[in-house]
Amino acid sequence: MSQMPHQSIKPIQRVKPIKYAVFSLIAFCLVGATALRAQTDTPEFDLTTLSTLPDNAARVYDATLDAASTQRVQHRGARHCNMKIFSTASGEFISRRALRGSIDPQATVVLGEFHYNQNIQDAEAALIRVLGNDSMPVAWEFLEFPDQAFQSKIFQTYSENRLRTSVVTDLQFPLQADGSNATYNAVMLAVKSMRSSIVATNAPRPVKAQLMDFGYATLDESFKPPLFNMDNASEDYFERFYDALGGGAHPLPRPIEAYFESQYYTDEVIAWQAQNARILIVGTFHSDFNDGIIPRIPVYSSRPVANIKVLDGELLSDSEIEEFLQGSELYGTYADFIVIACGDSGC
To answer: Beta-carbon neighbour count of residue 334 at 10 Å?
Structure first.
């Protein structure tokens, strides 16, 4: 296994604003269950097996086939999502226009999210419309890069108005039988409206399991980012990760260093695959405190990075929101911008 930033495990001070019960779940999901598609050979994409529509069929097809969901998304997610934008540099709330003017048009914009949250995904859809363009794609942590051809066929068919939005998200990660993937319908509609495309970025789950059990050297060359080195991982990142997984309070099937190597490998693979993206959507732990994936993106793309953390204001008290805005005494600011999504309650 590659050298880890810690030679021994030691107790650490917790970061006050973080709700670690939530972050523990995120961390486990990121290292153990990021692959949301079934781990089988990529299926041949056959339109005859799907509920498709003719090329360029009526552009209101979503409104007729996904009426209630799409009308809500178009109202809240696409154009009128209630949200506030805070600049950690100026310490002030800013407008969407000011946000766009603050970010280099060639930068990669990272949206650090909590997964499967309608308010957050609606805000992301609004941000895609503000910051996206048709020449640089939207990259997504949920999708595995060996499936890029499959995902491209799905989204091209969707762009031709031959698939409903709900069918697209079901095809992208079909294991979500509870329908929770529907929160991402807003995101797909926004990407489509910008005439953009989707980039799959993650490594398959079996590859990460092989990494943890047998080491990086055993991986196939196609799964090795050319600049991956565990020595680049910061000590702060390891400490936060260790704390998020319980701080040693609960036994784990593997050494903590193995999980952290998988976490950091995931960061590296995503940065490698997202090098041409305008917007990258990842779990917030990957990008918090401008660490994790953030310093790795310019290594592969030579482009600047803007980091945006998206919160659900309806789930947080005023004091909790203030703590996120002010950042941590130990680790600094969470991101360049904090977006507070307020849903129907307003901001």
So the answer is: 28
Q: Is 343 within 8 Å of 73 (Cβ atoms)?
A: no
Give how far Cα 58 sits from Cα of 65, 175, 326, Å: 12, 30, 48
Phi and psi at 275, nearest 5°, equal -65, -20
DSSP labels, 293-345: TGGGHHHHH---EEEEEEEEGGGS-HHHHHHHHH-BTTTB-S-SEEEEE-GGG
| Cα–Cα distance, 160 to 258 (Å, whole number) | 43
* pLDDT, tens digit (0-9, with 9 covering 90-100), for 14-72: 444 444 334 434 444 444 433 333 333 334 445 444 544 444 333 334 443 344 344 44
Buried-state track 275-287, b at ≥16 Cβ within 10 A, e below 16: bebbbbbbbbbbb
- Cα(291)–Cα(156) distance, integer angstroms: 34
The amino acid at 270: I
Domain locations along the chain: 20-38+61-345
Residue pair 115/312 in contact by the 8 Å Cβ criterion: no
CATH 3.40.50.11550 fits 20-38+61-345, yes or no: yes
Gyration radius (Cα) of the chain, Å? 20
* pLDDT-derived band at 166, boundaries 50, 70, 90: confident
- CA distance linking residue 50 with residue 47, whole number of Å: 5
Lowest mean pLDDT of 53-57, 115-119, 325-329, 339-343, name the range: 53-57
Separation between Cα atoms, residue 62 and residue 173, nearest integer Å: 20
Cα–Cα distance between 338 and 82 in angstroms, integer? 14
Sign of CA dihedral 209, 210, 216, 222: negative
Q: How far apart are CA 32 and CA 329, in angstroms?
A: 30
Q: How many C-beta atoms lie closer than 10 Å to residue 343's C-beta? A: 20
